[in-house]
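Board notes, transcribed. Complex of a protein with pyridoxal-5'-phosphate.
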Amino acid sequence: MRELQQRFSVSPVTVQRVVRQLVMEGRAVTRPGDGTFITRPAIADAGAVDHSWQTVVLGRSPVVPGGLEHLTHERTSGTIALDNAFPEPTLQAHELLAKATARCVRRTDAWDRCPPQGIPLLREVFAAELGAPFTAADVLITPGAQAALDSIFRVLARPGDPVVLEDPCYPGAVVAATLSGLVPTPVPTDDHGVLPDALADVLARTGARLVVLQPRHANPTGSVLSTERRAAVRAIAQEFGCFVVEDDWVRDLDLDGPTGPPLIADDQHGHVISIRSLSKASAPGMRIAAVTARGPALARLVSARLAADFFAAPLLQATAAELLMAPGWQRHLLTLRAALAERRDTLVHALAEHAPSLSATAPRGGVALWVHLPVGVDEAALAIECAGRGVRVAVGSTYELTASGAGHLRLAYGKDDPTTLVTAAERIGAALRSLT
Ligand SMILES: Cc1ncc(COP(=O)(O)O)c(C=O)c1O
C-alpha cells in the first residue's frame, strides 16, 4: 500500500478506495492476513478473446469454406429448402430404425469393441446384396460414404497426386480430395455419364491412378452411366492400371425401375471400389456405408479405419443390419421411391408451367433436378432473387471444377410436399421474370 501511495503520490484513503473498486470489478482479490493480489485477466466477453495468433500459425486453410454445410444442418426455417437433398423426416425410416435400435441397444456386443472392418453380420448383408463372388471378407463398414471417400483419398494416393473427378461433381468429394493433398482433375460428362475417350485422355495426360465416378444418378446431373460406357470404363481401368471409385450414393433410389447392378458387379480384378451409402434412403443420421474392395487396397482401407476411429459405432452397425433385414425395409423403399417420383414429376411439370425458359429433364432416380438456365441469366443473381422469395436453391457453379459459363440450378425435391414444390416453382418463375 505504501509503495502505491509513494509511486502515485496519493493518500492511503485513495489507495484503499481504488483497491476496493478493483476487488469489486474482480481484478484484485484480498486475502486477509496475506494481502491483496492481482487476479488473472478476466475474460469478460467473447469480444475480448484474441484468436488472431492462430491465423498466423495455421496459414492458408486446406479446407474450402462453405459448400457442404447445407448437407449437415438446416440454415433457416420458414424457407423452401430446395438445396437440401435429404428427403423430409416423414419419408425417412424412423419407425424401422426405432424398432431396430430397440432390439440392438441391449446387446452387449453393441457396446463392445469390434473388428475395424465392421461387424460380420452387416458385412454379410451388404455382400449378399452384391451376390457371388463377393463375401463379407470384401466389405468394410465406414461411418458414411463421406468417410469412405476421405479414407480412399488418404490411403490410395499420395499428396500431390491427381484424382480424376467428374465435372460437375459432388463438392464433398472435391473437399475431401483437396484436404488429402490430392489435385482434383476434371473429366467431362454428359447425360450418359463420363465420356470414356476423355477419361482415357486425362489418365494418359496426368498419370492419375484414382478416378471417382457416380454411375447411378450422379450428383448433381442425375446422369446414369450407360451400359456401353460401363464396359469402356472397365477396359480403361485395366489398360491404365487405375482404381475406379464407384460412389453409389443413392443405390436404393432408382425411381423409374432398376438402372442395373453397381459397376463393381462386373469387375474381376479389384479395379472398382464401390461405396454404398444408406443415408439418403434411411435417415441422415444413419452414418453407415459399405465399401467393397479387394486385395491390398482393402487392407489399406481397413488400416485407415483403425487410424481414423478404430471402427464405426457397433450399435449403429447392428441397427443397420437389422434395418436391412427387416421385412419393412423393402416396403419403406417402395413408399419412398413413389413419394420421390411424385415430387420429381410435380416439380418438373410445375417448372414447365411457371418457369418455361428453364430446361430440366426428369432424372431416373435420386433426389434432385439439374436445371439449365437460359443464356444470359446469372445463376447467382437468380439464387438471390429466389432467396428473397423464400426459396433456397443450389447454384451450378458449386459443383463445377471448370467454370462452364453456363448457368445451372440443382433443385432437390425430397424435402417438400408436392404443393410446396408447386409454390417453389411459381416463385422461381417470378424470380426469373424479375431478372429477364
Ligand atoms: C454423391 C455423394 N456421395 C457421397 C455422399 C455422402 O453420403 P453419406 O451420407 O453416406 O456420407 C453424398 C451426400 O450427399 C453425395 O451426394
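The two ends are 77 Å apart (CA to CA). The chain is about 40% helix and 15% strand.
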